[in-house]
Amino acid sequence: METVINDYISRELVPDAALLPLANDTSLLDSGILDSLSLLRLVVFLEERFGVTMGDADLLPENFVSVNAICAYLRAREPRKEAARG
Amino acid sequence: MAYLLQRLLTEAAARQPQRPAVASGDCLLTYQELDQLSNKVARALLRLGVAPGDRVGILAPKSAAAVVGLYGALKAGACYVPLDPKAPAGRLSHIARDSGAAVIVADEARTSQAATLAGTVPWPADVMVMGVPGRPRSQEAARVPAQGAATVPWTAVTGESGEPLAEERAIETDLAYILYTSGSTGTPKGVMISHRNSLTFVDWAAAAAGLGEQDRVCSPAPLHFDLSVFDIFAACRAAACLTVLPEGAATFPVSIARWLEAERVSVWYSVPSVLTLLACYGNLQQWDLSGLRTVIFAGEVFPPKHLARLIAELPHPRYLNWYGPTETNVVTAFEVPTGWADAQPVPIGKACANTEVFAVTSEGRRVSRPGEEGELYVRGPSLMRGYWRQRAKTSRALVRNPFQEECDELVYRTGDLVTLELDGNYAYLGRRDSMVKIRGYRVELGEVEATLHRHPGIREAAVLPVPDELLGSRLRAVVTADGSNLTREDVLDHCRRWLPGYMVPDIVEFREEMPRTSTGKVDRAGLAHEQNTLEPTGDGFRNKR
């Protein structure tokens, strides 16, 4: 899951190649990788790829601060789906 | 008396010297401080040789430093040109060169970016570094960018006199700012706005929003987006406080909502997509937003179901829909009635004060009956002076008033198709050309296509909008390549070097051949039709089945 999300962010959202390679604990907020536009694209990707629906209780900075945080949040939310998809 | 934007500041400072003018991060500037600091900047610019009519680039996000800098430029008789620090270097360099920027005023964090940018123009452009008023700042001098050019540190600026300048250096028909917007032929074009053009909007807007000195006004729009004219100048006209949404708070809807509560923002002005995010993800009932009395949106159509949700979550503010291209400022307005829950988008409304709009049918008749459709034209003092150094483009946009036989008068063709409603309001229908809106930003598909064509490995490219509820549109690029080793990443990297993020296609499709109509043109209708049988995925399209 970390690899899938890191790949997506690295490929689609990182605005400047100088930020690559992206570590899973790099802050997506302080580095400027996530802004309101890229956050939306990431949400659409996560919803489609991992079959989750995000509401207003989910779009919190702490859930998106890094690749690791996103994975921790998704695992806490959808434990079975994650196991099924591997 | 001269009708100049900087007079809004000197008058507010005389009337309300101690009231807050700009609240930005840790920095709070009173009207007196803003007035005096901008006098210092103006003097420092004059010392650099800035002459009336010169262009001064402002390389900074919306901030106290940026506001001080742009008022300083205006007081020096110059016209300011916003340079978006997030834009790719190639685009910024084009704008700096095209506008002929004599000086680049940058905030401290962009010192080296400004020096690099100044080094890309063929004349010695000076760099002025803005400190953050009221906080310690580094004394580090920037690299001098080009021979003969100066770098003016903030200490030199603050050493200037803060007294008013002896005389005005502009008249009301002079340019106040140039806003660069997407251009269909591949490079951005500069919309020239004079003091009179801008003040026509500012005077109307301050009254229409009912701005007063108690107001705390926020627009998240950056300086290069014309929505920022409202919070920078209309707030100043009312001696209200411009409150700057910090970049760190703008990403997450809940952070925006929390900030609105903490800052007690009373008037908000943004594109609908930001409000849609707030409605869907802002958890609005958790926050005390009772101070928010007016919400204004502009720049694109507000999807009705999201507007209804926003009003349901936040019923107490007035909701105003403003309409107008950058070239005309806001020209029509509509106040959303209380309890509105229509399935149709809200109309763009009726003409603002001191402005006339009319629609022209495809047969050249003036729309006069409800239900008729036509292209919207605008006449009035808010119309741009033209496109900077683009006479041919200007003459296609500013045309003779077709219904004024006796004398020549220029009106602006918006390219927007509208219909007249029973109650006299205009409703927006769509575009006459291939411009789309992405989060309120204008995107000429031709500019994205021209950028793709610049890649040596791309033979042909067509860019199509894919409607998206949250973003307005996403972009789909269909390309044919010379050779087969061109990857999607290559295409995206190339686009990111030249285009701002919102103009970079989401979807890249490679084709052997571009589909064509019987006349040999790219078959856009056919390509668009394919979209109906596809649905978006995170990184492309998949078949719906």
Kindly list the characteristics that best describe this protein:
heterodimer, A: mainly alpha, Non-ribosomal Peptide Synthetase Peptidyl Carrier Protein, Chain A, 57% helix, globular, disordered C terminus, B: 545 residues, alpha/beta, Rossmann fold, Luciferase, domain 3, GMP Synthetase, Chain A, domain 3, five-stranded parallel beta sheet, 29% helix
Walkthrough of the structure:
- The complex is a heterodimer of chains A (86) and B (545).
- Chain A is mostly helical and 86 residues long.
- In chain A, 57% of the residues lie in helices and 0% in strands.
- Chain A has helices at 2-13, 36-50, 61-64, 67-77, 79-85.
- The relative contact order of chain A is 0.18.
- Helix content of chain B is 29%, strand content 27%.
- Chain B has three domains: 5-244, Rossmann fold (3-Layer(aba) Sandwich), CATH 3.40.50; 326-431, Roll (Luciferase, domain 3); 435-543, GMP Synthetase, Chain A, domain 3, CATH 3.30.300.30.
- Chain B has 545 residues and is of the alpha/beta class.
- The model of chain B is unreliable at 135-145 and 536-545 (pLDDT under 50).
- Chain A binds chain B through residues 8, 11-12, 15, 17, 29, 34-41, 44-45, 48-49, 54-61, 64, and chain B through 86, 247-248, 250-255, 274, 277, 280-283, 439, 470-471, 489, 492-493, 496, 501-502, 506, 536-539.
Brief rundown of the structure:
The complex is a heterodimer of chains A (86) and B (545). Chain A is an all-alpha fold and 86 residues long. In chain B, the strands form seven sheets. In chain B, strands 2-1-11-10-12-13-14-15-16 form a nine-stranded mixed β-sheet, sandwiched between helices.
